[in-house]
Amino acid sequence: xxxxxxxxxxxxxxxxxxxxVLVCAAWLLFDHHTGQRTILAAGALDAVGYPGAAQFVRxxxxxxxxxxxxxxxxxxxxxxxxxxxEQMRLARWMLNLLSAWGWKTEEQRFSVKTPPxxxxxxxxxxxxxxxxVAWRPGVDDCAFIIGGHYxxxxxxxxxxxxxxxxxxxxxxxxxxxxxxxxxxAHALSARQKPGxxxxxxxxxxxxxxxxxxxxxxxxxxDRLFGLRDNLYGSREFVNRLPRNGQSVAWKNKPIKLFLxxxxxxxxxxxxxxxEGSESLIAEQLVALxxxxxxxxxxxxxxxxxxxxxxxxxxxxxxxxxTNLQEWHTPRDTLDIISAEKIAALIDVxxxxxxxxxx
Length: 358
Prior knowledge:
With 358 residues, the chain is α/β, with parallel strands linked by helices. It has helices at residues 13-28, 65-75, 85-100, 164-181, 184-191, 220-225, 232-239, 279-287, 306-310, 339-353, and strands spanning 30-31, 36-37, 104-114, 125-136, 143-149, 202-208, 243-244, 247-250, 253-262, 271-273, 294-296, 315-319. It has a single domain (53-353), classed as Zn peptidases (Aminopeptidase). 31% of the residues lie in helices and 19% in strands. Strands 3, 4, 5, 6, 7, 8, 9, 10, 11 and 12 form a 10-stranded mixed beta sheet that branches. A two-stranded antiparallel sheet has the order 1-2. Helix 2 (65-75) crosses helix 4, helix 2 (65-75) packs across helix 10 (339-353) and helix 4 crosses helix 10 (339-353). The radius of gyration is 20 Å and the shape is globular.
């Protein structure tokens, strides 16, 4: 457990100076191999806590590197698989932060049965999942949903997996996007564009719980227990969407696009837009990519877009499926992450949101 108030009543000047030096060292380390500043936390991760909105830069009209780094440090403090106390605290922190930034918020709490992960007992385990959903009502009759998972994969006791890239990178991206999309400069920029742009839809940010399987492999649940052991949160999210005949809506507005982000922050970032993604929108994103390595590929990867796909909701799925050496290992930590690469993808999404919808 990490307490939210970590300020001792008394602290000597020497301790204060040591703390400052440690924090500065952690934030200023530079990777001379890649030319990227890394976000090494040294031994100070346990002192991060859960910063409030006042501790984030609010006025910046562009993606702020320190905000992204701050979110990443919070998300990766400790492992936080679905149903854990750590995941509950993380969900509450995000809800408070998003509310403070002016978003309407909802915690979608749900109960599921999952396979057992320790011992020989074959009894299914009841767990509570928590989707964090934030939205900003738009003026047009449409909804644009961006989603990704924020849970870390469960590992046996003694294995520390925090999912800095796998879950953490997209979560930090969406939090900074939430701040930017309530910034007056971006709203003014969007209003100056011709009508019918994505920004004028309801904007929805869906932070899904339980994307990861509890068993070691993605399909072990089906094979061993006859149940799907993954995508718990995104399946719950789409199950709650109201149906009107063959169409599915977000608060009575048709869903025009679901953008699924996962594993987007590696220092050697190489992004794929996977098979089945809306072709025209994928081409627009590639055209806006700037210096980001991003391309359409004939590769199918199961992720949180699958429940949307099954309902016929248009989607684009962006994932880095090349930098897998740290994937699902204890090495998926802050030192493989580039906040600058995350910020560059935020820029692409913001530019896309001001483009006219098909």
